[in-house]
Amino acid sequence: MTTSTIHDIGYRHYDGRRNGRAYVLRSLYVHNVRAAFGLGRPARAKVMPFLLAAIMLLPAAGSVAVVAVTDQADALMRYSSYATVLQVIIAIFLATQAPVLASRELRFHVVPLYFSRPVGHLDFVLAKVAAMTTALFALIAVPVTVLYVGGLVTKVPDSTAQLGRYLAALVGCALFAVVLASIGMVVAAFTPRRGFGVAAVIAVFMLSSTFVLIIQGIAEARTNFTLSGWVGLFAPFNLVDIVQVRLLGAEKSAVQVPPGVGGGVVALALCAAIVLGSIAVLYRRFRKAGLS
């Protein structure tokens, strides 16, 4: 007969503080925000996000400098149009950083490791979308803030009206950030290879904008300006710009926008549908990956 021996190898129960769901969610969020800017990663991972952030700041700094030299308040860029004017830079930032947040765990098959601990699938998705939204909001809102502060320093007239436009523009920045982040994260989550993810995200924005411009050009050639405005709902940047124009009182940056407050309400509802739908799709994507 064989004998068995029980060895005490030092395993003990954890008796420390349990921080709970809020701490897990906050930790995931902070980790992903840092990842979006390459913080905590090699130096080469920081080059692209910070280079694009610097490029985003240049027009704002240049606009303030022109106003300071010429004393012409009209030379200051409009707050609400900043994201639309620089949409190419924003799209590149999203295309390069969304795969870092959405597809890296999928590519290396480590998603089940997250869910082996008490991390909810919805918490995981919300933390990632919120982190990408925060990164985009910072990318857009910081230059807009530079415009506002620069306008105050250079004594642009009617500071009270400028404050109202600035606050409305911040709401627009937040809407741009959450809508674009949701779309980019979904596209990146279904393209695990980072190179394909970058190309896919850029293609979505380029193709949608090109399609809308073509249809709007045809509609305007036939003097159907109402159709031209409604078609703008199918391009993400135009979609948010419609909300800014019809509900936040901004001047339009797109060719045409839908008429009346109703057009803004429809655009806002579509923005909400995009965000909620994207979260649902990401939930199913990561849940399936966590079970595999």
Automatic annotation (TrEMBL):
Report which superkingdom the organism of origin falls in: Bacteria
Instruction: For this UniProt record, give its keywords in alphabetical order, as a comma-separated list.
Output: Membrane, Transmembrane, Transmembrane helix
Which residue ranges traverse the bilayer? 47-70, 82-102, 129-154, 166-190, 196-215, 227-249, 261-283
Iron-sulfur recorded as keyword:
no
Name this polypeptide is given: ABC transporter permease
